[in-house]
Protein: Cytochrome P450
Amino acid sequence: MFSSSLAIPVFLLLTFIYIISIFLRSNNHNENAHKRPPGPLALPIIGNLHLLGTLPHRNLQSLANKYGPIMSLRLGQVPAIVVSSPEAAELFLKTHDPVFANRFQTQVTDYLFYGSKGLGFSDYGSYWRAMKKLSVQHLLSASNQELIGHVRWEELKMVVKSLEKAAKMGEIVDVSKKVHGLLEDIVYKIILGRNKDDQFDLKGLISETLRLGGVFNLADVLPFLAALDLQGLKKRCKEISRVLDQLFEKIIKEHEEALNTHKDGKREDFIGILVSLMHQPNDDEQNYQITRDDIKANVLSLISGAYETSAVAVEWTMSELLRNPRVMKNLQNELETVIGMNRMVEETDLSKLNYLNLVVMESLRLHPVVALIPREPAKDFMVDEYYIEKNSRILVNLWAIGRNPQVWSDNAEMFYPERFLNSDIDIHGHDSQFFPFGSGRRKCPGMQMGLTTVKFVMAQLVHCFNWELPFGMKTDDLDMTESFGLSLPRSKHLSAMVTNRLSKVYHE
Ligand code: HEM
Structure:
């Protein structure tokens, strides 16, 4: 058609017209009958990607101060809505909860979670309900917490012993490493029945899965780049999912063999329960027949939900106590009064530790483990006067809501647990100014397990030991920056000096 000398200019001209048309379309919100929420001007191709930075929750907070609590962005080619006030969160997570109860799925969740199966990433509907029912009934309900309490106790006792040794030697403790290691061991034992494997690097595989889950993947928002795999994520996901699948297959087979040899069907871990259900004939009560892929995806979903979240919550709470000796002292006084100095804390003591409860709430307000709650609308929908497209990414900025001075007064940035004293605000997601476990249908199903674990670990660490920042560091010098991913951990490990507080060893 064209001579070769014309082909390049014509191609460039057509590309230019295409880019300009997308640019005009994406910035033409208000003249459109479908009015989108206000937001910053979107650039061609990348949209507003350049505004996210490495700490998107902070940058989105600044943008929301300018554009409002329901803000429209374009992430590459994907529309996004950022929700940043209690009133707006109420609209998305409560008033219109059924419409916004889907999660957006990504290339990584498709590869690692068997086509985005399991509880965390599947769309709201009958499959999701079946996964939730199985998970709550056999792992997350209150009655299960009593059954799995002994795992927490045994693992925590080992950490206490190792800290006593560190105290004796005057060592500086890498608190972050200790806490993450402890939570890994607790969660893997409860869910998989083991915390290591003689053939596979169990911990390495799962931590790489969590890392990949938190990487911002350009291919999700600029689909024309997907085939190029510029970040190498597709390749890495394929490698990891292949090995992880072999590990899960091995664990499932071992449980199947155990079922065949012990016909009593005795089991003590979650994956074993799912395996036995897979081999039971379908009946009315269990009307979804669970498959091998469902087991693998759901187990991975629950591990992703359970381990890092609880570890990050403990890490931040410990950081705040080290920065706030007044609060540390109050908490130790409560422990001394309720528990006494002659024994370790037991899980049954937790309900009597009111100040501990306030401390954990305050820590989750300032350091929500999930900074941006991800949702997706099931259909095109109007929220107030705004039109929200079906495939939009909804991001509820929990971090911004937790630090809003209009909600929490001028001392919003201060760690002050007493703000929850005599207040009606609870932690269960009923209040739209404070919902660290989310709200509505997709609210965290592991709240009970998460809270029990975080409080138990915190109570034990603070009761058994005295803690101080190392090298004479001043409280204000402690680096409190975050690192954004699937969760929001500290960017730098927390280190501290530890000394024994109880005069005798009580855990033998
Ligand atoms: C301190 C601990 C924890 C915190 C702060 C936390 C927070 C959250 C948040 C904010 C969500 C999103 C909720 C929403 O969309 O409204 C969530 C979802 C989820 N959490 Fe947790 N979580 C914690 C512990 C756990 C534990 C221990 C488990 C499981 C054993 C767990 C499993 C899950 C799962 C499976 C989902 C997805 C639910 C769904 O999509 O239906 N979480 N969590």
Notes: The chain has one domain: 4-500. The pocket of protoporphyrin IX containing FE is lined by residues 103, 119-120, 140, 301-302, 305-306, 309-310, 313, 369-370, 373, 436-439, 442-446, 449-450, 454 (CB under 6 Å).
